[in-house]
Specification:
It is built from ten helices and twelve strands. By secondary structure, the protein is of the alpha/beta class. Helix 5 links the parallel strand 5 and strand 6. Helix 4 packs parallel to helix 6. The structure holds zinc ion. Zinc ion binds next to strand 6.
Length: 320
């Protein structure tokens, strides 16, 4: 009797659940499959790199978090009036403009935001070596502009290297490597943050400007790193034009390249940048295509800790 009861009891949940289980299993299975496959789709054709899964930001979504990380900012891709209209007799070029923030060894493992904005000097050197050994030529934004205007062709495999914010570790960690590899780079400096903790000293910027005029281009990144789409036109103008004036007074050279803080811009902001006398402005929109229609919205590529094939695949990110 006991045995029969046990079998009966055992059979009940199995038989009653049997009609629900296949449907549930299929549903759960399909949902799981979709959740696994969807994030993989854009990178299926790309090689993975060591430690990729440990990186919590998605390198394919160019998110840029302000220092302090108060508000993670999303990607803005506003169409500018000029987009789609290329000036006559100008060219379209494909130059990856890569960008970095901190170049340092992680000072605080708990500061995950800073960690995500950091490339260690070890990886920067590997990347510079990779570019040198694989036929790339670092160029500056004047060369890119001249090529678009049809004045001078670019060397083979051109790439622009840029550093945002003017952190002190640019001077201590990145600058020596750029000199070692004779790699050209552009630094976008927040003019009024010079001499603050963590930011370059004015004397360091002056030294770079004097010592490496042909290697390092000094660009502007506003006076106080404000989101230019969130402030009045008066404040935006002061931030844009004021940073140009201040930096020019320090380095005694024209400052004609600009980067939007947090990558935030719109038509009005781009018009102010042009009016202030800048020649180009860079965003955080991913892509490698530059022409006369996007002088004030050049795309850029965010770089992390990797080199080799994955690094090279990032240089080929195409976009608008
Ligand atoms: Zn910035």
């Amino acid at each position: 009797m006991r045995k029969v009861k046990a079998v009966k009891n055992l059979g009940k949940p199995i038989s009653s659940g049997w009609f629900i289980t296949p449907a549930l299993a299929i549903l759960v299975g399909l949902t799981g499959l979709i959740m696994v496959i969807l994030p993989l789709l854009p990178r299926l054709s790309l090689p993975s790199f060591p430690g990729e899964n440990k990186i919590s930001f998605d390198p394919w979504v160019e998110r840029y978090v302000p220092p302090g990380g108060e508000k993670p900012e999303t990607l803005l891709t506003p169409p500018l009036k000029t987009s789609g209209y290329i000036l006559p007799k100008t060219k379209t070029v494909n130059v990856p403009i890569i960008f970095y923030h901190y170049i340092e060894y992680n000072h605080d493992p708990k500061d995950t935001i800073r960690m995500h904005l950091t490339v260690t000097p070890y990886w920067l050197e590997k990347q510079l070596r990779f570019l040198r050994d694989n036929g790339y030529t670092t160029v500056d934004l004047n060369q890119v502009r001249a090529a678009i205007m049809g004045r001078k062709d670019l060397p083979p495999k051109p790439v622009v290297i840029s550093f945002d914010d003017g952190y002190r570790d640019f001077y201590t960690d990145a600058y020596p490597l750029l000199k070692k590899y004779q790699a050209k780079a552009t630094i976008y400096v927040i003019s009024d943050f010079l001499d603050r903790p963590n930011y370059m000293f004015t004397w360091q910027l002056k030294e770079i400007a004097t010592e490496s005029a042909n290697l390092i281009t000094i660009g502007a990144h506003t006076r106080h790193h404000l989101s230019l789409t969130s402030v009045s036109e008066k404040i935006a103008w002061d931030e844009i034009s004021g940073s140009k004036t201040r930096l020019e007074a320090i380095i005694s050279r024209p400052v004609v390249h600009f980067a939007y803080p947090y990558g935030f811009y719109n038509q009005a902001v781009a018009d102010l940048v042009k009016k202030a006398g800048f020649w180009t402005a860079t965003t955080t929109v991913p892509g490698t295509r530059e022409d006369s229609s996007n002088f004030f919205s050049f795309p850029r590529i965010r770089i992390g800790d990797y080199d080799g094939k994955f690094f090279e695949s990032r240089l080929r990110v195409t976009g608008k």
